[in-house]
Amino acid sequence: MSALRKKFGDDYQVVTTSSSGSGFNQPPPEKKRKRQRFVDKNGRCNVQHGNLGGETSRYLSDLFTTLVDLKWRWNLFIFILTYTVAWLFMASMWWFIAYLRGDLNRAHNDKYTPCVANVYNFPSAFLFFIETEATIGYGYRYITDKCPEGIILFLFQSILGSIVDAFLIGCMFIKMSQPKKRAETLMFSEHAAISMRDGKLTLMFRVGNLRNSHMVSAQIRCKLLKSRQTPEGEFLPLDQLELDVGFSTGADQLFLVSPLTICHVIDTKSPFYDLSQRSMQTEQFEIVVILEGIVETTGIITHFSNEAGKHATPNVK
């Protein structure tokens, strides 16, 4: 057996030959480990914050935004759980008042005036609460004027019900009106290309809108994410550089009625100016495309992100 050492760039690979054969028995190349992207193709950022301290209290201090940011299954679970607990609590309060006054044992006595008419047990107290809260008003169960504690509880129930309805229904409405699914009908090209256009070396990719409704005041921006080291020796793991896609000429303002080609001229001001073709293939970087605009059907200002770079950066923690 003899060993041959071949050099590929800065890496060395050992190749063995057999004395009985003329071919090389080269070991299969190792699969390149797929790096996790900073931004996925669907625009989701792979950022995990850790070792900050007090995260739970910070999230709870802005409870409304926290609920809106939760996934749909958790939103529905909290929605159902909150209403169920509130209903059972208020029904228990009505039953407790009837129990303390002795209405449960004398509810069938025509000469006795209970706090709430026709409340005999917990199910009937629960039905009275639902009829009151939902303003159904069947008329069979009703509160009387002989029960001041019941009147106070009725006022408390009305205020609490309004707060819970405003909070949860508002949260569900905001979540349903979020245009995240609108990004499914905004198409970005799978790859970015570099070629000559108008005599200039240009980085190009395409973007298109599948819906007939327009993106009003659409504006596109590009960010280059890569690590670099400053002259002072500081290492920046995710340095953000702006890629000019027509900011000075107004080309970044899009009239997105048909697919458009977005161009970035690689000139002396471009971060790619000092990169060769080989270094472009080996460098670890990402190009994040951000499309901002107003959804015509809802009038909501939104933005969509897409990762257009071939190479990726590791997860940030």
From TrEMBL:
Q: Which SUPFAM superfamilies match?
A: E set domains (SSF81296), Voltage-gated potassium channels (SSF81324)
The Gene Ontology terms for molecular function here are: G-protein activated inward rectifier potassium channel activity
> Topology with regard to the membrane?
Multi-pass membrane protein
Give the subcellular location: Membrane
Note the Pfam families from the entry. Answer: IRK, IRK_C
State the UniProt keywords alphabetically: Ion channel, Ion transport, Membrane, Potassium, Potassium transport, Transmembrane, Transmembrane helix, Transport, Voltage-gated channel
Annotated region (Disordered) at 1-37
* One of the record's GO cellular component terms: plasma membrane
Site note Role in the control of polyamine-mediated channel gating and in the blocking by intracellular magnesium, residues: 165
Name a biological process GO annotation: regulation of monoatomic ion transmembrane transport
Q: What sequence ranges are listed for the domain Inward rectifier potassium channel C-terminal?
A: 186-303
Q: Where are the transmembrane segments?
A: 76-100, 150-174
Polar residues composition bias: which ranges?
14-25
**Protein family according to the UniProt entry:** Belongs to the inward rectifier-type potassium channel (TC 1.A.2.1) family. KCNJ3 subfamily.
Annotated PANTHER family? G PROTEIN-ACTIVATED INWARD RECTIFIER POTASSIUM CHANNEL 1, INWARD RECTIFIER POTASSIUM CHANNEL
Could you tell me what this protein is called?
Answer: G protein-activated inward rectifier potassium channel 1
